[in-house]
Structures are given as structure tokens and as C-alpha cells.
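TEACHING EXERCISE
Course module: macromolecular assemblies
Task: Read the component lines below, then compare them to the predicted structure of the full complex.
Student: A.B.
Group: 4
Components provided:
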Amino acid sequence: MFATQKQPELLPYGKIREDLFRPLSGMTRKYFAAILIPLLIILFGAYAWTVQLRFGMGVTGLQRPVFWGFYIVDFVFWIGISHAGTLISAILRLTDAGWRKPITRAAEAITLFALMIGGLFPIIHLGRAWYFYWLIPYPNMRLLWPNFRSPLLWDLTAILTYVTGSAIYLYLPLIPDMAQLAQHNVPWRRKLYHALSLGWTGSDTEWHALERAMKLMAGIILAVAISVHTVVAWDFAMAIAPMWHSTIFGPYFVVGAIFSGLAGLMIVMAAIRKFMGLEQYLTRHHFDNLAKLLLLMSILWLYFTLAEHLTVWYGNDPADMAVFGARTRTRFAFLFWLMVGVNFVVPFVLLGIRKLRGITTGVIASFGILLGMFLERYIIVVPTLSVTRLPAASSNFYSPSWVELAITAATFAGMIVLYLLFSKLFPIIAVWEFKPHPHEDEI
Amino acid sequence: MAIDLDRCTGCEACVAACHAENNISISTPEQAAEGRTTHWIRVDRYYEGAFPDVKVKYMPVLCQQCDEAPCEPVCPTYATYHNPEGLNVQVYNRCVGTFYCANNCPYTVRYFNWFDPVWPEPLQLQHNPDVAVRMAGVMEKCTFCIQRIRRGKDEAQTAGQPVADGDIQPACVQSCPAEAMVFGDLNDPESKVSRMAESSRATRLLEDLGTKPKVFYLERGR
Amino acid sequence: MASVTYLLSEFRDKDAVASAIHSLRAAGLGTGDLDVFSEEPIEFRRGVLDRPSHMSLVSVLGAIVVGSVATLFVWWAQNNYAVVTGGMPVYSFWGTGVITYEMTMLGAVLATFGYFLWESGLLRKRDKTKPVPIVPPECICLRVRCTGDDVARPTALLRSAGATSVEKRASL
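Instructor-supplied answer key:
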């Protein structure tokens, strides 16, 4: 059935442009509902945060010794999701994999929004959040500076760099499309696109500069992305808490981030394909490749998890084993094994068996992976804190309160809203990048 | 500081004295069940054996004022640092509430103000004017009664004399009925605490972590 | 002063553009007189219409500069407000190495983006005298700047290379 259909790259340019620009105009009732419900959730989450600001962190479920809970889990989770774009854009761009072309902008958008959301949590989790700016080095009347040796300051610089880099990396390939759209019929859009296009004319000087910049940015952003999640991992690894102080955390978190990012990407791609009518552009082939990548990351994730836990178990250090037991045998055992099931077993079955591999199964596996990676962060953060080195100080079980759940839900809603707005303002597939240069030489 | 575990009876007078001296808030039973009590010094109980041969060990645990404290390098705002006297100080005004210090403390001796503190009437009239009352969002811990250390040093300076051993006593040391706790200058080899630290019964908590704690626990059988 | 005229020509395929550029350069026009406009990037073979670029160098320089400045600032700030924490030295290169690295990367990012804006001409004062062709779909436009009145020869070269249309425009 698909053999006779034209390959999307070979469709006439005008048709491609029409298809990709069409979703920008008009608003359906479905779209309106899709934006309204998340907005309400965001409002509720914002209210929950004001409650927390007013009364104190006591409204959360945190307690001594579990001083980090859902907010930190959320933080690591969202920064992890942000690796979607980097992998697809940068790595696939550097290796010149053609199938990435329709996916790059959608992936880069996920990266930027996930970073913006994740970057909120270092503020939200603070006991005195209104003083968050004390972490920024600025000349002040007390003549003091922040402590640059703290991993939290490393976090600040890493995320700042990554957000700047991602925003620029998203914006650069957008410029030619903005020039195309500058002839839009709606006046405010016309002004917006014209401003964003910076007067792009499409001359070869401009194209050369753009391509060079993008090639450089791809390499830079890849280096930054790896460092960002390593630095986030080092928030834990630099501490001497048992089963946090592990050398594997840096690479472990990077792999986990790419893993969860890809899962998020697959879900977003499926949604775009369905709701924006882009079946011709996001084909089974793309989902097949994404599924294979996801499978690879799943195996890699399992490898790292196994390596981490095996070495702890074999070493038999009492403090580590206390946490290990809590994770795998007692308090957190259900969550731990659920995580393994959803992160490895389910994707292995649904994506590994070729007959089962498809768009629907891919999306199911991806939702499972998102749950699994959220659980993985939870299992890294909470058990170590619950089981203290001095046994008498160990805690009752930590569970998130309504405030933490509301804010977490609000971030998911926020992602949906940001993405819906983005897809209405900008074409979700880069038109000029997508059409594979019919004038291209075979060198 | 040196604590003689063979003398400790687990009476928790030190805990009560610390509360009174340092304006520590009172917790309700619900808060205790939630793990949200604040006891800058707490008495840990370890049970050995089964009934009827049960043995209980009491261990008062307070901030160890580590020389290489793991809580200090991780604070992004220098709300906790090592002062020239060798104390690990907590600067309430500078604390933003990142919780990193508490996560890194292997002794779990840091306490957080989850809400603004409350005292049931009329306990709020009993506050010590020398000690700040902390607000919600700020981390706190034992300071070795730094207000008493300051006062002791000031008085010694006014009198023109050096501080004598035993002049300065934190509230817990002062209130211990078994005289199990001793406080002094570890740099002075003649002080009581230095001699106790050199005892064959002396050990330190979690010493192999390299935190260099300054609280010595004396226990028979070492 | 000789008057300047522009020839806006349209082509259907890239090889025709390449051969047109070739013959125009043989006739004495320089790369500064030629501009290709298109809706997607056109890759010519080496030597046809090269635009040398300093972007990699600028990127590296920007990285080094910002990274060094940031490291020096950290060193200065740590010493300016010298506080002992956990036995760590007041300034520790390894303890703040991540900041050095991230700021180096940030420098590279900003330098690349800034230089892109400059090199592409997007953020320079535009030369309003040059007419900009509107590129029809599937076409490539070649703009030739001719000094003086000798427009016939370039026009002929363009047509023989395969231009579908050649339009003469005076400078604006």
C-alpha cells in the first residue's frame, strides 16, 4: 500500500510548504481544549506553589532525613528529557543521517522547553526560594560571592549554557522559514516573522554562514549536553551518601537522559503526526529508526544499572548494602522492579520483536519508559536519604504531598502548552532542511 | 567535646537544656511521626539482644563540628563554613534552603525549619535573647552554644585572663547530671577534653569517612 | 562615476548556475559581484563560488576568551571572599573546573552565533542599493553586478548558460 506513494522528499516544494504551513493558521475546538485543560492544571500548580511559599516547605512530604524528594526527581527528569533534541539534532546531524530531517525541529523544541521547565525546579525546591538569586555572582553590598566549589553552582552555569545554546540552536534553522512565512496574511504574524527573519534574503553568503554556524553548534551543543547531565548527576555523586557517591553516575545519567528524551520524542512525534496530519512526512520508517535507537538505549541503561548494583552488592559495604536492600528487597522493591520491567522488559518485547514494532506499540513503550525513568530518579534520590549511616536517624517513609504532585502535574501541563503554542507559531518541520537539495551533487 | 558513654544514662536532660538555650521549636506528636522534630542534640538508642537479655546503648549525637565537614563545600551560598576557631558555623541569614548540606552530613545532625516555629503559650516568653529565632526555610544545627563561647571569651578578655578550662560550657554539657559530657579546647593538651580524647576508650563516629569530627566518644572495651 | 546595473537571472538547475558563474568569472567579474539566491542551500563544487570564512577561528577564540575570563573571575572571587569549607583550598581548579568548561562552551556558542549574524550580513548595515530578487519556487536566482553600460556581454553569457529569464535593474 505504501509502495506506490511518493517519498515525501520528492513531493513538489509548494505542496510541502503548504502542508507544513497549514497548521499554523486557524484554531480548532480540539486545539482549544487541548490548551485550556493544561492551563487550568498549571494554574492549580501555581496556586500550590504559592501555598508552599507562604507556609514553608512543611507543606511538602519532605522530612528529616529525606530532604530531597519529588522536586529533585522532577528536576533530573526534565533535564533528562531535554536530551532528546541534542541526540537527534547534533549526533544525527554530525553523522549526516538523513532520516532525522523531519524530526530535528520538533526535537530541539522539546529540548528547549524541557530545559526551561527543569530549570524552574532549582528555584521551586528551595526553602527560601525568593532568595534564589544569591547563587548568582553579582556585586552586592555585603561584598560576598557564592561558593563556586559547590556542585549547585556548577548546575547553574551548565544549565545556563545549555539553555542559551539550545535556544540559539533552535533559532538558527528557523530563520529561513521565518523569511518564507513573512508573507503571511495575518498582520501580527507577518510582523513577528519578519522581525525574526532578520531580513533573510536567501543569498549564498547567508546560507554558507548558516550552515557553518549550525555545524559548529551541533558539535558544541553535543559537548554541552553531555556535560550538563553529568553535572546534574554530580549533584549526587559528589555527596558522600551511600549509593550516591559512585563514579558511574555521570555516564549513567547521560545515558538515562538520552533514553528518556528519546521516549518523550517518540510520543511527541506520534502526536504531531496524528494531530497535524503529517503522515506523509513522519513515516513508519522514522518510527522504526527511533524504536531501534530506543531499544539500544534501553539495553545501555540496563547495562549501567546492572553495573552499578552488581558492584555494590559484591562489595558488601554495610552502609551501601543498607540502601541496596531498601532499593531491591524491602521498602522500595516494588518500585525498583517495576522500573526494570518498564524500562527494559516492555521495550524489549514491544520494540525488539519486529512483528510488534510499530507506532502504537512504540508510543506505549515510550510512556512506560517515561514512567520508568521517573521511577529511576525517585529510586536514586529517596532510598539513599531514607537509610542513613547512623541507623537510628532513618526515617519514616517519604511520600509526596498534594503540593508536590500539583507542581509536578503542572510541569507536564506546561510542556504541553508550550509545545502547542510553538506548533501554532512555527512550522514543526524545517521546510528548507527537509527538502533534500534536489540540486545536490553526489559528492 | 568528649562524651563518656559509660556514664550516659539516656536521661535526655541535654536535649531539654539545648531546647531551652537555643530557642528550638516544640514539635507536636504528629510532627514527630512525620519525622519533623528538631533536636540539635538527640539521644540515639541502640538495642542489642532479645528479651530478657536486652541491652540498650545510649548515644547523644550532635553536630560533630568536623574539621573537614562534608556539609561545608556543597553549600552554594556559604551559609555553612569553618570559622577560624574551628567551629562549623551556620549563618541563618545566608541560608537559601537548598538542603545539600543536610544530605551530605553522614551523622544526620542537621535540622530544617519546615514552618515558622511555634511555641505553645507561655513558652515563647522563655526565649534566650542571645540566640536568633530561625524562620521557615532555614537549616540549623548544634553550634556548640556559640553564644556561650562568645560570652566566655568576652568575659575573659575583659578580665584580662585567658579562658580557663571548664569556664565555657554549652547547655548540654552544663546540664548533664552524670557529668558525662566535657567541653574544652582541644588545642590545649592540658585540658580535660584533650586528656579524655587521648584515652584508650576514645573513638569517633564514622571516623573512616575522613570528616575529622571533634566529638570523642569514650566507651569501655576499645 | 560609472553607473551600476544589476542583472537578475533565473535558472532551473544548479549546474546551469555553476557554468554561468564560471563563464562570468572568466569574463572578469569577481565573486563580490555575484550572489546566488535560493530557498535552500546550494552546494557548488570547490572553486565555483567560495566564500572564505573565519567562523571556526572566531568560535574557538570566543571560547578561550570567555572561559579564561570566567576562570579568572572565579579565582578572584574565591580569594576576595575567602572562606574555608571542608578543608578544600580557597581556589580549587578541579573544584571549579566545571564552571571553566561550561563558560568555555558558552563562549563558543555566543561567538558562533554573533559571528554568524555578522558574516551572513544579517546584522550589518544593509546595502539598500542592491535589489533583492524574489525567488520563485524551484528556481535559483543569480544576481550579477555590472559596472558601466556593458550589460550585453554578461546577459549573453547568462542566456547561453541556460537562464530562463534575465532582467536588468538599475541600482536602487
